[in-house]
Structures are given as C-alpha cells and as structure tokens.
Amino acid sequence: MINVFKCFEWMSVQRFIRICGGGLLVVASLFGPHAVAAEEQRAATNGAFDLPFLTGSNKAQAEQVWYGYDRATRSLAQKWAQAEIPATTDRTVFYPFSGPDFVSAAALFPNADHFVMVALQAAGEPASLRQMSVAKQAKFQEKFLHEWRKFAKLGFFRTDDLNQDLSDPEAHIGVSTILISFATYSGYQVKEVFPIAVDSSGEVVQVSGPWHSVRLILTKNARDVVLDYVSTDLSDRNLKENEPLRKWLEKNATHPTMLKAASHLLQMPSFSVLREMVMAHAPVVVQDETGLDYLDLSKIGHVTLYGGFLYPHELFNRNRQASLAQAYKESKEIKPLPFAFSYNKGQERRCMQIVKRG
Hints:
The structure is a single chain. The protein has 10 helices and 13 strands. Helix 1 runs parallel beside helix 2 (about 100-110). The protein has 2 domains: about 1-80 and about 100-230, no CATH class; about 235-358, no CATH class. Helix 8 links the parallel strand 10 (about 255-260) and strand 11 (about 285). About 40% of the residues are buried. About 30% of the residues lie in helices and about 20% in strands.
C-alpha cells in the first residue's frame, strides 16, 4: 500500500510548511487582510513530520476508506467523465456551492489547470498536529476520520457538519485541511498554501490573513495546478451589494461549470444573479438534480441525461425539478450512470445532466 503522506514534512502552520521532494509550501502568517509579497513569506524549514493529519491506525483506516471510495466512486467517475464530458481547451473549472469537495472536481476534470471553488464556509488555517496537545491530537484525528468515512459514504459534505467541525475547539477541522487531504490522495503534490481574497477590482490576491479563502498551488505529472477556494455568500442579497465579487464570479462563470449537492439553491428566486451568470456564459455545465432547473438548463443547449430521476432527495421540496422528472420520463436517450454522485444513491434516482452551449 502506498503511503500517500510519506513526503510531508511539517513545521509551524502559523507561518511556513515544507514538503519534501523539492517543494516549498508557504503559509502566510496572520497580520491582517492586506496583500503581501510572496517573496516576503518564503523561508526554508527543518524538522520532520511523517504526515500532516493522521497517524498510526487512524492513518491506516483512512487509507482503507479512501481505497474503497476510489473503487466505488472516484475511478468510475473518472472513466465516465473521460467518455461523456465534452472536450474543451478551457482548463479552468468553476464549482460554486462546492464545499471542500475537490476530489469530485478533480475526478471529472483531471486535465484542469485551475479549479475555482466557492462556498459559504471559511477555509480556516490548515491543521498542525505539532501544535496540538496529545489529547487534542487524539480528538482531532478521531473527528477527522469520522468525517472522512462520512464523505466516502455520502459523497458530499453536510453544511451543518462543516460549520461544526470548524467551530469545534477540540477538533477544528477546516476546509483547508480537507482540501489538502483530497489533493494529496488524488495524486497532487501540494507546493504552497496561503490565504487569498477578492480585491476591490474583482481579482484574487494573496493576503496575510484572515484565512477566509485559500489558494493551493499544486503539481501533478509535471503540470502546475491552482486551486482557489473562496468563501462567500452566493445569494442575491450579497451579490447585489458586492460589485467586485459579482465581477469575479461573472468572469469565472465563463468556464466549464460543475454543480453538485447544491441544495437546489439555483432553483430559488434568491439566487437569480449567479443563476443568470451561469445560464448566460457557461460553455459546459455538468450537474446533478440540485443544480439549474431543467427548464433553465435546456436554454443553454441540448441536455444529455444520465441515470434516473423521479423526485428530489427527501431533504428537499419534492416538487422541485418537476420538468426534469418529466424529461426523464419522456426521453428515449437516457444514458447509464455507473456511480452514485450526490444525494440520491439508488439506480432509479441517481442522476447527472450535461449541457454544452450551442
């Protein structure tokens, strides 16, 4: 079994983290939300830490969970995506309402050079076992492994769990920690991690803190990859008052867009700004039933249906996506979906849709 964390060497996450094998992973120290020069943050560090988040039997259990998830979901999603998602020269992927679910985005878009993920939860600083007491390490690892298992089973993150994990004074598992884990297990080398923000001109800039949003600089197969996770409220109430954020979102909505486990939010009147951006600009949309309403999705182009759909998961209003249910009922060209992707797991209810503009 490959020890995917073997190359990690960790020191204080407050300032600098080094990864062996030639990569310097820099984490900005926290002095305030202003832009900083990257060269001011770089420094060599010493000291070994075999892996960042789990040790001993916890690590072994996490690896077993991962390999099970990989066989049942991730590897199947990769093969499906290679055959079904339209090829594009655009190497940026836009994933609103993502939570820390980098693993799904990387599986569906393995050739992307830039992942733009947006969700409500703050990123938080990456965890550092070195800075925890023995008791806190045990609590953290227990909680981390519990959430790791839960994602492998569900295939998505529950908002309440994410909020609780970040606020738990004993565990304090933030989005950044999960992103680093998913990137590493997905075969990426993490080179740098630092906080970011959307500035007044609608551009992402590196800042010295706080850790609301985060950028991961990754490499895989000698290819550089950037993962941006931006924490913000995507509702109309926030977007209508925030012109720089709207500008940044509209720019990213011009790229292939992924919607998964999005709680049907884009189908609600209070999320019209982002909905209209995606409808107007996205060249490709890959989604489950919680993304755009089928009537809106079909305005972009021809929709290819996968799997089956009767009605939403019991967590949501059963009347949502009535047009999608009708489309599945009437279509003679539905393709199979060989893996469970989101809320619904059964063969007759799990579904995805792909639309290419045209």
